[in-house]
Design a protein that fits this description.
Layout: E1 5-13, H1 19-31, E2 34-43, H2 55-68, E3 72-75, H3 81-91, E4 94-97, H4 98-109, H5 113-127, H6 131-141, H7 159-190, E5 194-199, H8 205-215, E6 236-243, E7 246-252, H9 262-267, H10 269-277, E8 280-286, H11 292-305, E9 313-318, E10 334-337, H12 346-358, E11 362-368, H13 373-382, E12 384-391, E13 394-401, H14 403-409
Parallel strand pairs: 1-2, 1-3, 3-4, 5-7, 5-8, 8-9, 9-10
Antiparallel strand pairs: 6-7, 11-13, 12-13
Length: 418
C-alpha cells in the first residue's frame, strides 16, 4: 500500500503565465496519491542556483510546511541534486520535482516486463547525476516517492551499482526491441496498414480504440480504459476490420504530458518507434479541456521528436459530449468531432480512417487462372471484392485492390466488357 503524502506545490514564473502548468502539476500529484494543501509561485528573473527559489521564499515554505503539516514539497521545475539537498535541509520536508513525480506514476502504472525496464532506466538515469548533491538525503528518505521503482522495487543508491544496472537494462531493452522488429516485420509481411492513436494523457485514446472494436464486433479484444493519467503505458495492438478486405492494425500508445522527462522519452523510444512506422496518426484531443491547444502543441512536439511529423493525420476531437463548444481546428488535417463514450460520430471517424488507409485502392476486374488458386484466395482475403464469377478461363474478381497487389497481379486484368 502506498504511503500518503501531504504536499505544497511550487513553481517559478520567469516570463509567461504558469497557472496551467501548476494546475497540471497538481493533477499529477493527485494521480500519485498526494494530497495538495496549497501552492506557491515566485516570479524570478532567473532561478537561484542553490535553491531554485529565493531565500525568503524558502523560509516561507518551511513555515507553511510546519503550519499546514505538509511533509512534501513538489517543484514544477527539474531540480539538481544540490538544490534538493539544500531545500530539504532548509525545510525539513521531502523534496521532489515534476520529473520524479511523473517517473513515480509511470513506475506505479507499468505492467509489462519491458515497460517496467523502460521506467527503471529513466529513473536511474535521472538519479545518477544527482547522487553527488543528494546521495545522503536519498538514503535518509527510506522508501516512498523518488526511491521506488516499478513494483515497489527499491532503487539503487550506489553509483557503481546504478551504472551497472543501466547497462544491464539497456541490453535487455535491445533484445526486446529486436523482438518488436521481428513482430513488425511479420505485420509488414501481412501488408496490413497501421493507424496509431497519439495524444495527451487522458484524452481518450483507449476509449476510442474500444469504441472502434465494439463497432466492428471485437468486444473480446477491448483494452483497459480508465479516467486517469497514464492509464496506458504498454503499446496495445488490435486488428480492426472495417469490411471485407479492409483490415488494419490500430495501436494505442502512451499519452504525452508537458515537460515530459527527456529520459523517459528516450527510454520509451523503442516502443514509440511504432508511431514513426505507422501509416496514419489519429491525434486524439480532449475537446472539453480549456487548454487543449497547449496539449495539441505538446503532442505535436513529441511527434516531431520521434520523426513522425510528416505523417498523414486525422484530428479526433474527443469528449464532445462534455465540451461547451466545438473546437476550432487549424491543423490543416482532416478533423472529426466525436465522443467515444456515447458513440457520437464514431462512424465518421471509422470512415475517415478507411479513406486515409484504403482510399488509393485500385478498382479493377481480374481473371485468375484456376491453377493460381493461392492468388485467388489471397486477393479475396486482402481485396475489397464486390463480385465473383466462375468463368471457363478462370475466376473473375471485381473489386478494389491495394496498389501494390494491383501492380503485382495486373497481368490478370480484364479490359472492356467481357
Amino acid at each position: 500500500m502506498k504511503e500518503e503524502y501531504r504536499a505544497i506545490i511550487v513553481g517559478i514564473r520567469l516570463d509567461d503565465d504558469i497557472s496551467y502548468s501548476m494546475d497540471e502539476l497538481e493533477g499529477l500529484a493527485e494521480a500519485d496519491g498526494i494530497e495538495v494543501l496549497g501552492r506557491v509561485i515566485q516570479a524570478l528573473e532567473k532561478p537561484n542556483t542553490a535553491t531554485l527559489i529565493g531565500k525568503g521564499k524558502v523560509q516561507e515554505l518551511a513555515e507553511m510546511c510546519s503550519a499546514m503539516e505538509a511533509d512534501t514539497i513538489v517543484f514544477n521545475e527539474e531540480l539538481s541534486g544540490v538544490q534538493m539537498r539544500n531545500l530539504e535541509e532548509a525545510t525539513g520536508a521531502r523534496i521532489i520535482d515534476r520529473t520524479v513525480l511523473i517517473l513515480d506514476i509511470f513506475a506505479d502504472r507499468a505492467t509489462s516486463v519491458e515497460g517496467k525496464l523502460q521506467v527503471e532506466l529513466a529513473q536511474l538515469q535521472y538519479r545518477l547525476p544527482r547522487l553527488t548533491g543528494f546521495g545522503k538525503a536519498l538514503s535518509r528518505l527510506g522508501g516512498g516517492i523518488g526511491t521506488r521503482g516499478p513494483g515497489e522495487k527499491k532503487l539503487e543508491t550506489d553509483r557503481r551499482h546504478i551504472a551497472r544496472r543501466i547497462d544491464d537494462i539497456k541490453a535487455e531493452l535491445r533484445k526486446a526491441g529486436l523482438n518488436r522488429q521481428i513482430q513488425r516485420a511479420g505485420r509488414d509481411k501481412s501488408r496490413l496498414p497501421v493507424a496509431a492513436l497519439v495524444g495527451y494523457t487522458n484524452s481518450g485514446k483507449s476509449a476510442i480504440m474500444n469504441s472502434l472494436l465494439s463497432m466492428t464486433e471485437r468486444d473480446d479484444k477491448l483494452v483497459k480504459s480508465e479516467d486517469m493519467l497514464f492509464a496506458t503505458l504498454d503499446t496495445k495492438h488490435r486488428k480492426i476490420a472495417v469490411e471485407q478486405g479492409c483490415e488494419f492494425i490500430l495501436i494505442d500508445t502512451v499519452g504525452f504530458v508537458s515537460k515530459l522527462p527527456h529520459g523517459l522519452v528516450e527510454a520509451f523510444k523503442s516502443t514509440l518507434e511504432e508511431v514513426k512506422d505507422a501509416d496514419l496518426l489519429i491525434h486524439t484531443v480532449d475537446s472539453s479541456y480549456e487548454n487543449r491547444d497547449f496539449q495539441i502543441e505538446v503532442t505535436n512536439k513529441v511527434i516531431d521528436e520521434l520523426g513522425a511529423g510528416g505523417k498523414r493525420k486525422i484530428m479526433a476531437y474527443n469528449k464532445m459530449d462534455l465540451a461547451d463548444e466545438r473546437p476550432l481546428d487549424v491543423s490543416g488535417h482532416e478533423a472529426v468531432y466525436i465522443s467515444a463514450r456515447t458513440g457520437e460520430n464514431m462512424d465518421h471517424l471509422l470512415s475517415a480512417i478507411k479513406e486515409a488507409l484504403f482510399g488509393d485502392r485500385k478498382r479493377a476486374r481480374l481473371r485468375i487462372p484456376y491453377d493460381k488458386g493461392a492468388v485467388t484466395s489471397y486477393l479475396c482475403e486482402n481485396g475489397e471484392i464486390t463480385a465473383i464469377e466462375y468463368q471457363p478461363e478462370g475466376t473473375m474478381l471485381e473489386g478494389s485492390f491495394d496498389p501494390g497487389d494491383y501492380q503485382k497481379y495486373r497481368k490478370f486484368e480484364i479490359n472492356g466488357e467481357e
